[in-house]
## 1
Amino acid sequence: MAGDFVKHKKDSDMMSVWSYFLVAKDGNSAKCKRCPSILKTLGGSTKGLHTHLSTKHNIKVISASTSQDTENLNTAPPPAKRKLDDYFTKTKSDDDNLDDVLARMIALDGFPFSVFITSDNLRKLLLAKYTDLPKSAVTIQNAL
């Protein structure tokens, strides 16, 4: 049985789980170098190998993909909070019409159509720039 297992090509890489196991010639199992356990590795999965090392030998091998995933999670910037000014274009243009502003507010942050009718403060703010505000949510929906 011992002759059925060989060193894996990543055996010398101490960051690899394979430095702790010998691989079967058929590639479907692995033998622990620290104890007599033989574990399945069907489809090339090493989850069982990691679990064995962790539970039986108290060894944690951090794979390169795991450390990259963790690194990406830690460095991702938090989502930016929008200010009301962000919905308006910075320069005067045709893009700054009421329909475009409402469309951006609905699409980017999920404002319901009805909020533009029911919120007195939002209506006052929009009235400072636009004279003809919609009077129903259906009107807004049809315009967009």
## 2
Amino acid sequence: MAPSSADLLRAASARPRPSLQRPSYFFEGLRAQAFWPRESFPKVVALLEACASELSEEVQSLLEDALSSESGEEPPRTKRRRGIEGAEGRPDDRLERNKNICSRTEVTPRSSPWQPQGEGLHEGVWLKLELWARGGPLASGKAAPKTRAAVAACMSTGEAMAVPPGRAALSYMMCGAHVKPHCGPTNHRLRLHLPLLLPSPQMTGLTVAGEARAWDLHRCLIFDDSFEHEVQLPPLSREDALSDARVVLLLDLWHPDAGFLREQATQAVPEREKCSRKHAYTV
């Protein structure tokens, strides 16, 4: 008789694991490596990178509208080439207003789709717009319909983890943010980052299991977040809510060796939801 998902989770939580890989649930027999090649997930990578520019425009517009609603000004329509390069013709005094707006974004209205990270792991500005969790799309994702649709398409490929603890979100950080070293909840999922807005075409700041990698605009980066990982973004350069923004679309994927768990995906949903709620880190 095959073990149930609940049995698998109980067994996994009791197993030893490598020193830098410390999830709450550790499944043996899964390849352990900090970063994964994009070629391991051809469907999701092709789908997301094909629409990355369009998603960037949507996120940029969403942030501009959020800033304008905070400041009471018309949204600053910016000129973009690669990443965020500043607003054309923006008065210098707007920089200070944007700095003040950013300093308040850790306390966002409940009606805003952008909500603060609440795990106590970080310093600086770090917000999330949740798109998918607990096995389905979330209402907050309606604020970004194109991004929400792209996530839904990924969930139908079989490579993305549509069931808990799988999740998808937009993760917004300002330069200068620091996320303390921590480990995700399980090693049977991997995490994909698609950078949509960066201060420059390439940005450093992510370290996984002691190995640093840069984000490249519109290029997927995949890592195993059950390894200890940390984010340290470069210092603020322009103190501007847009020009110093790092926004990535994050999406959880099935570990390629976790086929036996994928078959159990429709079982033991309460256990998976409990795991998802306890560890909702969205670097």
## 3
Amino acid sequence: MAVTGCSQCIKYMLFFLNFIFWLAGGVILGVALWLRHDSQTSNLLMLQLEGNQAPGTFHISVYVLVAIGAIMMFVGFLGCYGAIQESQCLLGTFFTCLVILFACEVAAGIWGFINRDTISTELINFYDAAYMKAVDPVETTSRQAASKVLAVFHDTLECCGKGDDNQLFKAVQSSLCPEKTVPVDPLISQSCHMKLRDLFTEKLHVIGLAALVIAVIMVFEMIFTMVLCCAIRNAPAY
């Protein structure tokens, strides 16, 4: 053990923060898997209409989160081991990984903020395409397929229609909407557009909060890593 005094305190603080970072990676991995297999999003994103798959932007984002969680767990372990062993090489590698991860997180945050409505908008457009075919008064195979797609939307989100439905939709509403979505209170929105926006806004808030907490931890880890490296370099044993 080369470092003493305040440097030794920083060493154990860094170990503790890295352990928290490792746990955060596990949490992100778990949240990503939950988002991937969540019944609401899975039911909607597995839909097909005339051979066209529902937009998969959300699933791509989830797979990115899975990769980030796994990398964070590896980097957290590297930091813990480097701090305990007082290895400048491991701590330097850990610091480099942290800088890269932090830059990627900032870039992903900016991209996510700019495109925060993309996922819900894509699914709303997919819903509207099915809606237009389902209200077609002519009985066709396209109408039957679109009706099945709308039924899944309505059952999953407990909604009914777009909120400004025309007479054509009202004529087939009873067969497309589950009975439980019949408005009890006229002030309660049953619009599927609104339900889709609320669904993904809620999930993005969870992701954003987790990213903010991790970013703060990473900043402290980078500071402590630099201080510990300097202390190890200046220690008499080295």
